[in-house]
Design brief:
The protein is mainly alpha-helical. The protein has one domain. Helix 4 packs antiparallel against helix 5. It is elongated, with a radius of gyration of 18 Å. 14% of the residues are buried. The model has no long low-confidence stretch (mean pLDDT 87).
Length: 125
Amino acid sequence: MTDKAEFDRKLAAALAELRATGMWSANYDPHMDHALRRLGLRLRPPHYRSCMRVFLGYALFFVIGWGALMWMWAWREAWVTAGFVGVPWEYLVRSGIFWSVMGLGLALSLLYDRRKHRLRDWDTL
């Protein structure tokens, strides 16, 4: 069996197992993950990823995304108005801390759901 066929089989089994738990589909198959899979990336459902991968993935995605949006809409003007030049480290650190806490919370929530619903490991699907 090819890698793609094996991944597709495991993905179908994982989604069926998650669907059987009664969770909302947006919780076990987020729109962003679904869209990235349609683009060809092989992403496991979040409940089948390691906690570190979930934490890093979501924290980095939101730190970069949120930081860019906040810089365009709010921080840049305040920074320039104050007469500062250079990198706004305070804003970057605050954003990083906030989204790191959010990523950790999400990773722990997924770990709790995985244990609560007694989901199988990805390798045993």
